[in-house]
Amino acid sequence: MVAKLTRQTQRKGTKWHLQPERILTRHFEQRGTFIKKLVLERAKKAGFDAGNGPDAATHVLASDCSGLGSDCMAMKRLGLTCSHLFASDVSVKSRRFINANFSPKHLVANALKRLDCGSMTGYSCGFPCQPFSRLNGRRKAWADKRTRLFDVALKTISTKEPAWAVLENVKGLAKYYPQVRAKIRAQGLTKKYVTLVAPMCPRDLLKEHARRPRLYLLMVRRDVAVKADLVHFVRLALSDICKSMPKPLALESYWLSKTGPSVSKTRHQKAVKKNEGFQPKWVKRHANLKKNIRSDHIMKAKLLAAPSADLGLTPRESGALQIEWARRGCPNTFLADVSQNAGRVTCGISGEVPTLSCSGKIVSFDRSTPNTLKLVSAAEKLQLQGVDLSRVTIPKGMTELDMAKLAGNAMHVDIMALAMMLAMTMVNWNKYRLGSRMRTDKTDKH
């Protein structure tokens, strides 16, 4: 069943509602409840303090490199109330989205220039991944200036001492973990915090459609941490999630109806001057790749040429789609990011969606539907990232390209909910409240 969109205009922007049944809204709420239940059950089996539950705490949330505000969405999905202290992001569109939906007390563009904003309970940061990404052929790792945001995050944790913190980055960061550990030690966080590294992907753990493998650094303050084997707890909790998580809705449930205003075709074709005798490099590359593919598969793939042109794909993108589909034996369901060159195209079969990026163009092919070929819109990408469009406000003037960039930079909401739930469960909130009172009393006396 495909959900339909209606639009309700508000002062801040546009509110999207799924009608007549909010299929994905119920789906997202159920998964949030399920994640919370499984983690708390595993904590009970591990013998954690009964008064340890995060439901009993008053949460003050803060974040840097906030993106879409996935941390705030995750808190709501877990049914936890929180106040948003501050957020920062270099993107103007991200700041507008965060301000329209979560209204933090402080919202800044540059985290390097952020001033002291007050005390917090939890902190999150998805620091830039380009310096460590394997897809970036020019990555500079720690020589990249953007890695200074990681130092800012560690300094914020060291000075403000939240009960827990969650840091996120690509799996390529694992190669540089000795330097990460050295930076954590240099800030004095080794003695203050317990740090656990958990690789998580919504496809592998939560059986979602979208792939997004990431490393999550879970940090819990030692003086308020639960006295138990936390590594063993996280390992068993993730195992329980992987085994018990119910299957998601069909991929078609994430697609919006064609009448929706945000699903209009977006053509990115650029005018190319036709010079006599000029032949792009990709033409020869495609010819070489076709030599190793079965001829009958090549003939079937040529049927995708006309629909690809209707979607606004360039000849290079259309050719890459045909080649990758033929190389994989012409499956019935197929998704590919055609923004990459042939041979590097990330693909998914049987409902698997390749990792979303800011500039990616995801094409979906399904023989069982009348419209066999479609271009995944920005709003649909947001839903694949776990964003409930019926619960968010899209600011006025937000274009398709702006929303696509937001989706490519976002942290998956359900995975973020799982990471935050694990971190909060490892905190003994009775100790934390007692420590906060003692600090307040000392401040009053002074």
The averaged pLDDT comes out at: 83
Helical content class = 25-40%
The structural class is: alpha/beta
Enumerate the strands of the largest sheet in spatial order, edge to edge or round the barrel. Answer: 5-4-3-6-7-9-8
Q: Element order, helices and strands?
A: EEHEHEHEEHEHHEHEHHHHHEEEEHEHHH
Number of strands: 14
End-to-end C-alpha gap: 63 Å
Low-confidence runs of at least 5 consecutive residues: 1-12, 15-21, 259-273, 440-446
Report Rg. Answer: 23 Å
The main sheet comes to:
7 strands, mixed
The share of residues in extended strands comes to 15-25%
Number of helices: 16
Shape: globular
Protein name: Modification methylase DsaV (M.DsaV) (Cytosine-specific methyltransferase DsaV)
Transmembrane segments: 410-429
Keywords: Membrane, Methyltransferase, S-adenosyl-L-methionine, Transferase, Transmembrane, Transmembrane helix
Organism: Durusdinium trenchii
